[in-house]
Amino acid sequence: MKESAARSGNRQGTSGGDFKDCFRPEDYFTASKYFAPESLKEAVEILEGYGGDLKVLAGGTDLLVEYYERLYEVKGWLDLKNIPGLKEIKVFEDRIEIGPLVTHTELEKSENIKEYYPVLNRAAADVGSPQIRNRGTIGGNIITASPAGDLLAPLMAYDAEFKLVSTRGERIVPVGQFFTGPKRTIISSNEILSRIIIPLPGERTYGSWCKVGKRKALIISSITLALVVKFNKERVIKDIRACLGAVAPTPVEIKEVRKRARGKRIEDLNFSELGELVAERISPIDDIRGTAEYRRDVAREIMINALEEIAEKAAE
Asked: Are residues 224 and 302 in the same domain?
């Protein structure tokens, strides 16, 4: 375990070299305690000992923005960067497990993610800027729990589960039960997210991703849609998940779409009716990124477009 007293003042960036070499959290944070444990067991023991006084650090792209002008409020940091296994993507017979420190860039470039979860792959490529994607992590996106978090709707569409670890053991929580409100989850102050577990999709699984914002890059989503459809050998829909972000206090699945579409051929569906259904079932608000009415209109159209896209892919 490494513990250091954080240094005061602002450290100037160095010219050249890798950003990871010049960014040292202990140089920036004014908290009295900074921990960088080298095992998950050690990390949860430290977290248990300090209760809710430590902020868990993955990439830091959300935390450092949130506390930019009030770092003095943070009593300590628990940096997960040195723990083996938290940066890995592992493929098993029936699932893929993603470590919480896997960055958006790594999700974007991973051949396994491209092959099995193209919607998640495309969502990761749409996050922020190259600098944010290089540093920000899937675990941070999940724990921040912003309703506009780009990876949340895709994870819900792929039926992900989250493994949470503490000194008392571990538990696995389905994505649909994890988020409880804007920037709120069921994770306890003594728990760490250690794995994102996603079942491997079948061969005839297709997906569509759409992110809408006020500009083409460096945007917080006005609305996102992740649509994943699974077909059987006869091209009948086995399962369909229409999940949206930035349209409710948490990412949401419109489960009525599944009830309407399952057991039917996609060409027999009324895309306009399903688009209207999605628009009716979301609960958006008016904010700086768009009005509730705008989001309903957009939700309707992107759902129709996503169904058309998947219908074309399934017909190939």
From this structure: yes
Q: Which domain holds residue 27?
A: 3-79
Tell me the helices (H) and strands (E) count for the chain, helix number first.
Answer: 14, 15
Residue 75 domain flag: yes
Collect all residues with Cβ–Cβ distance below 8 Å to 23 and sequence separation of at least 6: none
Find the CATH number of the domain harbouring 291.
3.30.390.50
Helix (H, G, I), strand (E, B) or coil at 215: coil
The 10s digit of each residue's pLDDT in 210-227 is 999 766 666 678 899 999
167 and 233 belong to one structural domain? no
Q: How many structural domains does the chain have?
A: 3
pLDDT tens-digit series, residues 115-151: 999 999 999 999 988 999 999 999 999 999 999 999 9
Tell me the pTM: 0.87
| Six token digits for residue 94 | 């029936």
What is the per-residue burial (b if ≥16 Cβ within 10 Å, else e) of 83-122?
A: beebbebeeeeeebbbbbbbbbbbbbebeebeebbbbbbb
The CA-atom distances, in angstroms, between 302 and each of 70, 212, 243 are 39, 9, 12
Spell out the long-range contacts of 107-114 with Cβ–Cβ below 8 A and sequence spacing 24 or more: 107/138, 107/151, 108/133, 113/89
Separation of alpha carbons 86 and 105, rounded Å: 15
